[in-house]
Structures are given as C-alpha cells and as structure tokens.
Design a protein that fits this description.
Layout: H1 14-23, H2 27-38, H3 43-51, H4 59-66, H5 70-82, E1 86-91, E2 94-99, H6 102-116
Antiparallel strand pairs: 1-2
C-alpha cells in the first residue's frame, strides 16, 4: 500500500484519522486484549467456561461435564487461570474452580448472542 493509498478519494477528513489514532489503546493494551481473545479460540476452553457458568466444580467434574481427560482439563485451567478467566479455592484436599467474575459470564453471553443473530 502506498502512502497516498487510503487517503486519496477518501471521504473522511484528515483530522478524523488523527483523532482515531489518538483514541487507540496502547500497543501493550492491544496485545493483552488479543491474548485474552485467544483464550476463546479453543472449543475445550469454551466448554470449560460454560461448565463453570452455573457453579464451581472440581477438575474431575469438569472433565465429566465436557468429555475430556482430567489432564486436558488441568492444562486448560492453567491457561484460563493465567488469563484471569477462572479462579480457584481449596476446600480441604479438593480444588474448586469458578469463573473469575461476571465479566467472563458477560463475554460468553455476548459472544453467543452475536453468533445467534
């Protein structure tokens, strides 16, 4: 793309592009947002998040609910914890997982609404 391409014949005033560029989040924030959305790019992780929408669960129960091995669930939960999409708490020897907050629930619901339109 040449330097003039995209501006020649454009109906947008030059100022609009400058304003839009100034409103963009920092590169670091955009990178973090892209990483967050990558977490939603795996159907196993989505299944795990959906399983946790109703109640907290242990790894064995999540594995039964989504139909994958406990090892696979543990691996995905590690990634989801790093992305702050799930949290955990210990109850005796058992570790229970839940969605981190209502934002995660909202993201899943909004995504489903979008694809169902």
């Amino acid at each position: 793309m040449s330097n003039n391409e995209g501006t020649q014949g454009s109906s947008c005033p030059v100022d609009t592009g400058k304003i839009a560029a100034e409103m963009l989040p920092s590169e670091e924030m955009l990178y973090e947002l892209a990483d967050l959305f990558k977490m939603f790019a795996d159907s196993t992780r989505i299944k795990i998040l959906y399983a946790l929408m109703e109640k907290e669960m242990c790894v064995a129960c999540i594995a039964d609910a989504v139909g994958v091995s406990q090892s696979a669930v543990s691996h995905q939960l590690r990634l989801l914890k790093q992305a702050r999409l799930v949290r955990f708490r210990r109850e005796g020897k058992q570790v229970l997982y839940a969605l981190s907050d209502n934002h995660v629930h909202s993201m899943l619901a909004q995504g489903m609404n979008h694809i169902c339109e």
